[in-house]
Specification:
This protein has five helices and seven strands, in the order αββααααβββββ. The protein is of the alpha+beta class and 142 residues long. Helix 3 (32-51) runs antiparallel to helix 5.
Length: 142
């Protein structure tokens, strides 16, 4: 079994344990420029999906009766773009916690236990962490 100390001594990206990447503060901070690009784009796409296609809501409510929308293809393209950005987060090992607030967590190890490093748009660096079960309300300074 790999100990926490041995895990922390491994270089990134080899610091993967049980399929999960654990970030140092420095590694998480290195991703912030990408997050500053991805999060606003994802926010725009989700807003467009929820407000830019009012007839889609009508089509959803009538779907069981064969309803549809002339804008279904456009809506699907927006959804696919949003899905690709979400996959970018997942591929990096980030955990997208809230699109509207721009919340992203990074799995990390602190004092031998798993925690999240916590970032919120537009913070310029990771300055907080929280336990897995406390969420944003439990943020503590690093």
């Amino acid at each position: 079994m790999i100990t926490t100390l041995a895990l922390l001594m491994k270089p990134y990206p080899e610091r993967i344990f049980m399929g999960k990447i654990y970030f140092t503060v420095e590694e998480a901070n290195a991703l912030i420029p990408e997050l500053n690009d991805w999060v606003p784009r994802l926010q725009e796409l989700y807003t467009l999906m929820h407000k830019g296609f009012p007839d889609i809501q009508k089509a959803r409510s009538k779907a069981e009766y064969g309803g549809g929308s002339a804008y279904g293809t456009d809506y699907l393209n927006v959804a696919l773009k949003a899905n690709q950005i979400t996959k970018n987060f997942e591929n990096k090992g980030c955990v997208l916690k809230g699109i509207e607030m721009g919340l992203v967590d990074f799995p990390s190890l602190r004092e031998g236990r798993e925690v999240y490093l916590c970032w919120k748009m537009p913070e310029q660096e990771i300055r907080f962490w929280h336990d897995l079960d406390t969420g944003f309300a439990g943020r503590q300074p690093i």
